[in-house]
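Recap quiz, item 2
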Amino acid sequence: MTIQEVPQGRLRSPFYPRQADLDRLFQWHDWKGYASAEGFYDTTLEYFSVRNSAGVFDLTPMTKYRITGPDALVYINRLVTRDMSKIKPGRVAYAVWCDDEGQVIDDGTIFHLKQGEYRLCSQERHMAWLQMSAIGMDVTIVDETEEVCGLALQGPTSCSILKAMGIEGIETLRPFGMATYAFQDTEIMISRTGFTGDLGYEVWLSNDKALDLWDAMFDAGKIYGIMAMGTEALEQARIEAGFIAAYVDFLPANVTVRTGRSRSPFELGLDWLVDFKKPNFNGRRALAREKRNGSTWQLVKLDIEGNKPAHHSYIYSTSKGKKDVGFITSAAWSPVCKQNVALGTVRSPHGKVGEKLYVEIYYQREMHWSKMMAEATVVDKPFWDPPRKRATPPGPF
Amino acid sequence: MKTYDAIVVGAGHNGLTNAAYLAKSGLDVLCLEKNDYIGGATVSRNLYKDWYYSNCSYVCSLLRPEIFRDLDLARHGLQITPYGGGSVFMENGDYLGSYPDEEVHHREYSRFSRADADAYERYSADTMRQCRFIRDFLLRTPPDPTSFKPRDLKELAHLGSKFYGMGEQQMYDTIRFWTMSVAEYLDEYFETDVIKAALSGSGIIGTALGIHSPGTAYVLLHHYMGDVDGNIGAWGYARGGMGSVAKALSSAFQAYGGELRTDAGVEQIVVKNGKVKGVALTTGEEIDAKIVVSAMDVKRTFLKCMDKSDLDDDFYNRVNNFKIRGSSGKLNIALDGLPTFPALPKGSPLLDGDMHFIDSMERMERAYDDWKEGTWSKDPYVDMVIPTVSDPTMAPPGKHFMSCFVQYCPAQIEGRDWTDEERDQFGQTVINQIAEYSPDFKDLILHCEVRTPKEIENEAGLTEGNIFHGELTMDQLMFNRPIPGYAQYRGPVGGLYMCGSSNHPGGGVMAAPGCNAAREILFDLKRPDITPANFGDD
């Protein structure tokens, strides 16, 4: 018996041949075992494609589970904190799931594909946890990460591009809606979702049609300013949108080693995802207790004075900077908002909307380091939130 | 006649570490070694042509980096190189690889179970949590929970704050972890037999217990709590074999002005008026010292090298009942070339890692059954490495040294001494197991040293050949190690100290007991504490 050796290097997504053709930077990194590009031509232009025309991001490495069976809804509703019975077929829900202590294991999107059939999409891998929660339920969980690939098409011309590709009725798809569409001789699933805070779609299909989809999208998109984009552009866009990322703004609770380093949904500003009115869900008791007693941490969006990104900064309650109250987890200069923005974590009761905090920013100019104390205001809305994100049907650009 | 400030008995890594710190503090120190070579069980032995065998301990991870740095061991020639990966060969022709790259590792586990591949992350985090808890105590003297001395209260408070600091769930888990079996622990995460078999080995190495015996989960932790350059759980090779550790420590010791004598076996620790006077050598020579520090295991120290009339009965009996059962053997093999393992892919990095040949929990437990029957395992758990794949100094170019650690191998066969034939049969059992997976292995063997606990006891001095100087079970750990009331490195006689692995935090080439004992000695002598503190949060 000869056993095939598992691949020793990074896996290539089914879109890799086309990406390799476009790639001029040779900047690839590992994303859950896949080669994922930092950028392809110019990360600044790639970022602006999302805000100005359309950018295409390869989602293939996202972990994808198909959850089916008579108990699928009961199962998912017990898994996540939000009420999934309100999510009808054809709808997508952003959700978090927690351990028994009410600490967030991961966040992700749940697609209600059809009655009794769901897809759970997350950054991390959770088969062990999902199977454990499924004990005693009539539900089947299949990891289809390797069988299903995906492209995010994000930006103001994204709807026009899909229309030009012949996707009929795409303009009627509402935010967080999903539907299957005919594409060439097959079916693809399109959801109006994304990680950029702009008008955008995610297209899901089986691997064998990957290149056909890419070609059709780029052919149709040529006159709409389509561009392949890498992780760096996406990261910029997601901070502007105020979205949190695992291992950056929070740690998955089940792999957090140090006490107090995990977070509850409340501490991540995701109160709206916790529904105490629905049937029991994992972590409910702990979360109810936290709701009564208060949380330790608060994730904040910060509008910071000046133009120097507050990477890894301490956050202080006064400009004197005597006692730190938290730290920055994501920071960026927002080219589209012309704003110095950041996500951070502060100790309660700090973090109320409108509160003035201070961040200690270190910056380097010609080798030398300088530091400054910058005022930072807690804001509640995403930094970038254009009306076109919600418009149905979306405008042509 | 000269009176030394201190005599350290035994030039193994703990004796040398202890001696080095005492000498560094300015004491006049003599370190005695019964063999004509130093190192104890931390040796590189030249037993065949140009081969150097790490013939007892064979890999390094636990050696405290604080001591490595503090004694400047790099300057004294010590180099530790990490190695990664490993494999378990399966009876059906398949294999399970363990890859250093976490994604490749995930893919490999996924061949057997996706849930197990995903669970590995949580298993690692949970184990790491326990590691971080225990690592904090490696370079600390265990507090005496019955004492009201300020130092003990302070240490107890520290223990308490670390424990309560873990959080509610982790406190429960820790108590369970210290008492449960490695099989039960692994069952909480994994479903695949071969994956559990692969991970369970660390729970029984050096231990006269089976994978289903309570207490073996802790033994697994003992093998995970070390690090190489901050990579907790990683293992490495000492360049030149494990003897390089002893060589560097003795070089440091002598650089601090210490005196080392080999071929100087101690017959007895001499006590006068309830206080040590010095030691008497096997040659009859007597050497005086104000302090005697024994790096020997606790049984050898008190039952073999002291006059029973100098000791109280209850103490003596407790030492007599200390669990230090022999359970491991060793094969050291000179190879004419690198053996092939056809089940593994060509060019696989797994060929450079450790290799194991038991693929099920059932076989793991059966191996222990043989030990209980008073014989060696007929289908043993072998931890096999070939350090010469990366170390050019241990064998001639193109030739190799193979180290096979074997579990289980009793100190006696059915209650009587081993015969030479039985020793050879034991060796053949191991060779046959490996040869099942490597057709050219037998033909490449140039020389093979087979060591049962008897040889290990006779040469390295370890009672019953127990590699840890006593078993690592809850009843013999922390303030109960080696026996209650004597966990702070002080013997029952004035001026007598213990610095071997029978003391906290136990065995493995860690050097922590030697260092911790030095701290207590310096405290008693009212000298400044020059021993290093834990590097802290990692």
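The first strand of chain B starts at residue 3 and ends at 9.
Chain B has a mean pLDDT of 96.
End of item.
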